[in-house]
Design brief:
Helices cover about 65% and strands about 0% of the residues. The chain is mostly helical. The chain has one domain (about 10-85). Helix 2 (about 40-50) packs antiparallel against helix 3. The longest helix is centred in the N-terminal third of the chain and has 24 residues, at about 10-35. The relative contact order is 0.14.
């Protein structure tokens, strides 16, 4: 049974997004730590942001501070990996 929240988001949708977010983050950790493939790790980490682990119907200004900080740190990490790959001379 699918239950809907007041804003119309189903619990299944939120569970799916969180699962996919965790999968892409785990995959990026595997490539970052396991295989040392920074480009693939950065790509998967960036793709994880597509699956917002929090309620997507809540506007940015209405989100709790911890959610905004989590997502900003996530984006910052992706951008730093990107900049590192550009300026390090690492061939991909």
């Amino acid at each position: 049974m699918t239950t809907f929240r007041q804003n119309g988001t189903s619990n299944k949708s939120i569970l799916f997004n969180r699962s996919m977010y965790a999968l892409f983050v785990a995959l990026s950790l595997y490539f970052f730590i396991g295989t040392k493939d920074l480009a693939t790790a950065m790509t998967n980490l960036g793709l994880a942001l597509v699956f917002d682990p929090f309620d997507q119907n809540v506007m940015w200004s209405n989100r709790p501070l911890y959610q905004r900080l989590w997502l900003l740190v996530h984006v910052g990490f992706v951008i730093s990996l990107f900049v590192y790959l550009i300026f390090s001379g690492t061939r991909v």
